[in-house]
Amino acid sequence: MKIKLCGLFQNCDIDFVNEAKPDFIGFVFAKSRRQVSAEWAKAMRPKLSSVITPVGVFVNESVTTIAKLLNEGVIEMAQLHGNESEIYIRELKTRTKKPIIRAVQVISRADIEEKQDTVADFLLLDHGAGGTGESFDWSIVGQVKKPFFLAGGLKADNIEQAIRAAKPFAVDLSSGVETDGKKDRGKILEIVRRMRNE
Ligand SMILES: O=C(O)c1ccccc1N[C@@H]1O[C@H](COP(=O)(O)O)[C@@H](O)[C@H]1O
């Protein structure tokens, strides 16, 4: 099981993930209390362990901005968490060879069916707008054509149940590894250790 830890925004968060070594981390470039600037991400990128893949999280951002961050190597994957159309994703794919993740707000199984033929490389199934700390009903996931990240309110005490129910390619956590709105080193180390069955 792959693990992504999203919403790093403090310098110490880089130290926490370098110690834990999740497969992916996320920098949120969209408007959010976890929003980071391109300058900060650029400065943090060389400090990030080479075994961790950085993902940029965007909401209705310009294709040019995303392609620049990908092609400069600040991020290695782009997660589209807004209302980006298939035409938009096709355009982004003409500007970069790097993988694209399309987020889906899952209210019913129909939401997954509608998006699963996307030209994006991965889906990301989430409760809502992103970073809310709330979950959806994992039992409605069923078969999905694309490999998918499972997100939304995942934490130490529900993650095993979520994996059993939805069988994702990767799990994605943000609020669940925070305490008082900041990334928590202990929670980060614990969740990665659990996912690695150590
Ligand atoms: O984390 C954010 O602030 C955020 C803002 C805008 C779009 C997506 C965002 N995060 C994504 O939300 C899920 C995890 O959320 P949580 O565990 O429920 O807090 C994950 O995909 C993040 O990339």
From TrEMBL:
List, for all copies, the residue spans of the domain called N-(5'phosphoribosyl) anthranilate isomerase (PRAI).
4-193
MF GO annotations: phosphoribosylanthranilate isomerase activity
Question: According to its UniProt record, which reaction does this protein catalyse?
Answer: N-(5-phospho-beta-D-ribosyl)anthranilate = 1-(2-carboxyphenylamino)-1-deoxy-D-ribulose 5-phosphate
CDD domains found in the cross-reference section? PRAI
Identify the EC number(s). 5.3.1.24
EC class (word):
isomerase
Tell me the protein family, please: Belongs to the TrpF family.
Its name, as the record gives it, is N-(5'-phosphoribosyl)anthranilate isomerase
Protein species of origin? Desulfosporosinus acidiphilus (strain DSM 22704 / JCM 16185 / SJ4)
